Amino acid sequence: MLIYLSIPSRVGVNKKIIRKVINDLKSIGHVIVYAPISDEITTHKLYNFDLIIRCDALVHMNGWNLDPVCLNEISYAKQQGISIYPDYKLPDLHPTEVSCPEQSAEFLSIVMRMYRTHLDKNADYSPANILGPGMIGIATRLWDKLTRFINLSGFPLKVEQFKNSTQITFYHEQVELKTPKAESIEDTLLDTAVYSIIALLLGKGKWGK
Q1: 3-state secondary structure of 132
Q2: Per the count of CB atoms within 10 A, which of 20, 42, 69, 179 is most buried?
Q3: Do the Cβ atoms of 76 and 54 come closer than 8 Å?
């Protein structure tokens, strides 16, 4: 796991103790990050939040309850659903990381690719491209991506026109996989996942802000 180490800046902490905690976490198999200690609480707090949001757990050093920065970090971690541990009770690796290391590493890789894809899409099209059509626009994009995935996977859609309606059904017999002309199945699934998250952001009123 990626662990954020919360170190009190207003309470003296022995550097040997800090090094011991870091070494103990490394020996378990964790990766550790921490922010440089600063006297400027506001700047320090914002900088640390940017680190904490990317971590799987937070470990706080003794004296956290007397330090405003640590209190802010722990409060933020709780809001994000990030596990919190004291320095005398260090977390083990997650069972899934132990039993499925390749799966865990690739999942994280894909999630970060999604984040970068979202940044690129936002830069290319601007937030207004989503805000304009709203949820209907996202639903249309998701439908386009899903139907493309279905067709590329060898389960083409069948569209039948009726007098008062249009019915869409799936073929039950798998056909030969199609070779994508411009977009791979992997890219299609990645875009589908990104648009799903964009829908959540739009629903929370966070898109474009």
Answers
A1: coil
A2: 69
A3: no
